[in-house]
Amino acid sequence: MEFFCLVNIMDKTDLFIIHAGALPDVIVRTLEAKDALSRGLCKTAGEAATRAGISRSAFYKYRDMVFPFYESSRGRTVTLALNLENRRGVLSSVLNLVADHGANILTINQNIPLNNAANVTLTIETAGADGGLQPLTDALTLVSGVLSVKVIARE
After folding, report:
1. Max intra-chain CA distance, the chain
2. What is the torsional sign of CA 50, 51, 53, 57?
């Protein structure tokens, strides 16, 4: 698994992207444990730490210091490009799911369907999104009639 990390050094506003290969293994494994917890693969921090191959104390030491890149988008504006089947109720299902995840829809643009598919661009505010952006985009890909979901911009 290949990670790239966004790093804030000494509480400054400058952010850096660092390849996971340059980070200590315990940092990458902490991210893996957090991912297992957030996806429900593990019920406890100890179980997630064991699954990731680190001690529970190492997990607790670093868990509040490292976050997946998508979590850095919390509270920000994100633009999603979706390709939807031209079928009644698909867009409604997408909009309901976005609302159910706690995100606020700012704009919706839908093109006229071509070849039975419509391109839709959603701009959302992720401040209230439960679990961040990744769970939302993962859930959108599972909606019947959603052909593709891409994050095209973050603010």
Report:
1. 54
2. negative
Interatomic CA distance for residues 83 and 96, integer angstroms:
17
Tens-digit pLDDT profile for residues 92-150: 999 999 999 988 899 999 999 999 999 999 999 887 776 778 888 889 999 999 999 99
Burial label, 44 (beta-carbon count in 10 A; 0-12, 13-18, 19+): exposed
Q: What are the strands of the beta sheet with 146-154, ordered from one edge? A: 104-110, 117-125, 77-85, 146-154
How many helices and strands in the chain, by DSSP H and E?
5, 6
Please provide the size of the chain in residues.
Answer: 155
Distances (CA, A) of 91 to 122, 138, 145: 11, 16, 9
pTM, to two decimals:
0.53
Domains and CATH numbers, the chain: 4-67 (no CATH), 73-154 (3.30.70.260)
| Interatomic CA distance for residues 80 and 152, integer angstroms | 6
| Helices 90-100 and 133-141, packing angle to 10 deg | 160
